[in-house]
Design brief:
homodimer, 336 residues, alpha/beta, Isopropylmalate Dehydrogenase, 2 domains, 11 helices, 11 strands, 45% helix, cytoplasm (chains A, B), EC 2.3.1.274 (chains A, B), phospholipid biosynthesis (chains A, B), FA_synthesis (chains A, B)
Chain lengths: 336, 336
């Protein structure tokens, strides 16, 4: 394998496409030498954006893909029908090993479905989970699964725990990451049917550092490095995290603007406050990888701006250089 | 029925029992004329606290209950065995119609189990859900179910929606409350098996104002008055709400204290900020009623202080005066 990482980027996906996506790609190649980007999408539109920037022309290539898959389309059907869409063309580049990774801010459903249908699962992986990093008072935690497999089974959750553990250890550099399962009480006998089934299986895993249940209240305090849950619950956690954070900051802003005295105070606090809240900004951490595929597929926020797109692309470098997929493969083999 | 409402209060339950519970009871009778409180628990301990306060002696009665159910006990077993516990004695007062309502900050499991076993369900109610109010940018929303019935069925969720709707209309005075189901996407075809089954049933209900799915991201913005979900998901939402709110405020405080300039600013902002954030304080809204029982059972936070206990007791007045249970009964009868 070459030393440089090639990332296929869906130039047409997301609320701010193509401008912010293309800008993010340019920022990524400007910041990191070992990266090449292949932008997929309408080539005329992409070229019109690219001429705005100065960058190493050899490291951004455009591959024409005239079709676009929207959020309103049924994912599997869209992947099958729109062979010339920016998502399908990019995923095929990963499949054919012409790209190491794929980043998209487009339809989550289409990225998940396409990842599985086109790139395919690593042998032994039952369900590839979507695993974003969420900010905590301690740093970050990996939330796995946050939306790929609703109504998952206990055996799936066990694999999520293992893959998440490998990710946190190798991409984030956390030794022996703490793994916990989301539950509605701390005791082993608490929970719904799925959690009750999964808990003893996780407890029996010698290759992860399972610390037991985590209540949702403890998640923002960074109680665990890998937070395992079924996709419906994970999606609720991720979205509430984003929504509540934004709502509270909104509320605080209006509080700061409510009196003349507080307005003056706000002026003095603003820089320090901004700096602190940056740590709690999910977009800082790039996109969510779909773990367990034969290649790296990263879903970034639909409303991602250039910085988040850049971060999502750069994240692919660590993932690929650390051979996460080889480690997952090796690990599942050892456990057979 | 007499005009005055009698509320049995578990004096021994919660992290701050008995001091804060008893203080809360005293505050409640001081603030509201039409209320009587029966404190259940160790009478010597309770009397020792009560002598600290000046209040209408006829409106706080003590009923001796020497046993205490802890959070670590298996709920159903504890309810069956500890007949002289503060929870069982209080619930029996409700069962025997000597009290209209019961408030406890003690073991959630024991309150839920005891409510069902001793007070019993209203005829026609399949599962009584726990329904707290959560703060939003718009006011409050009722989250139903937040922990009583994990692995519920679609028919249960439909009843949650109806009971929640009656509660919001009559206790909060919101005409034609908007009802939504927690989902991982806005479209009808999204969701897990339970949501997919429940959605068309809710859509077919002519007696509620069903507005469709709500994503967790929208909950803090007050997108719906009644938020329906299965208990595991509801519990995650409630606890993440509390945990993330506290963590963010913690983060903001440390940001405000990080520089000399920001410290000065913080001093100026503090009163306005405090006032604004009060609206987002869950404890302001008292406890969570267990809907659908033959009497009112209210679970308040384990860490409740006197103000929250007082609010939880006062909340029983509206509930009882508005004849919520009669309305639920009437409603379910009409729907048979």
């Amino acid at each position: 394998m070459h030393n440089s990482i090639t990332v296929a980027v869906d130039a047409m996906g997301g609320d701010n496409a193509p401008e912010e996506i293309i800008k993010g790609a340019v920022l990524a190649v400007q910041d990191e030498k070992d990266i090449k980007v292949i932008l997929t999408g309408d080539q005329d539109i992409i070229q019109k954006e690219l001429v705005k920037y100065t960058y190493d022309k050899e490291r951004i290539i455009v591959v024409h893909a005239p079709e676009v898959i929207t959020n309103n389309e049924a994912p599997v059907l869209a992947i099958r029908r729109k062979k010339n869409s920016s998502i399908v063309v990019a995923l095929n580049l990963v499949k054919q090993k012409e790209a190491d990774a794929f980043v998209s801010a487009g339809s989550t459903g289409a990225v998940l479905a396409g990842g599985q249908l086109l790139v395919g699962r690593i042998k032994g992986v039952e369900r590839p989970p979507l695993a974003p990093l969420i900010p905590t008072l301690n740093g970050v935690s990996l939330l796995v699964d946050c939306g790929a497999n609703v109504d998952a089974r206990a055996s799936h959750l066990v694999q999520f725990a293992k893959m998440g553990s490998i990710y946190m250890e190798n991409v984030l550099g956390i030794p022996n990451p703490k793994v916990a399962i989301v539950n509605i009480g701390a005791e082993e006998e608490k929970g719904n049917q799925l959690v009750k089934e999964t808990f003893p299986l996780l407890k029996a895993c010698s290759d992860i550092n399972f610390i037991g249940s985590i209540e949702a209240r403890e998640i923002p305090y960074g109680g665990a490095d890998v937070i395992v849950c079924e996709a419906f619950v994970g999606n609720v956690i991720l979205k509430l995290y984003e929504g509540l954070g934004a709502a509270l900051i909104n509320k605080i802003k209006s509080g700061l603007m409510s009196t003349t005295k507080s307005k003056l105070g706000a002026l003095l606090c603003k820089p320090a406050l901004k700096e602190t809240l940056k740590d709690f900004d999910a977009s800082k951490y790039g996109g969510a990888p779909l773990l367990g595929l034969n290649g790296l597929v990263v879903k970034t926020h639909g409303n991602a701006k250039s910085t988040e797109v850049r971060n999502s692309i750069l994240q692919c470098v660590t993932f690929t250089k650390q051979h996460i997929n080889d480690k997952i493969m090796e690990h599942l083999k050892n456990n057979e």
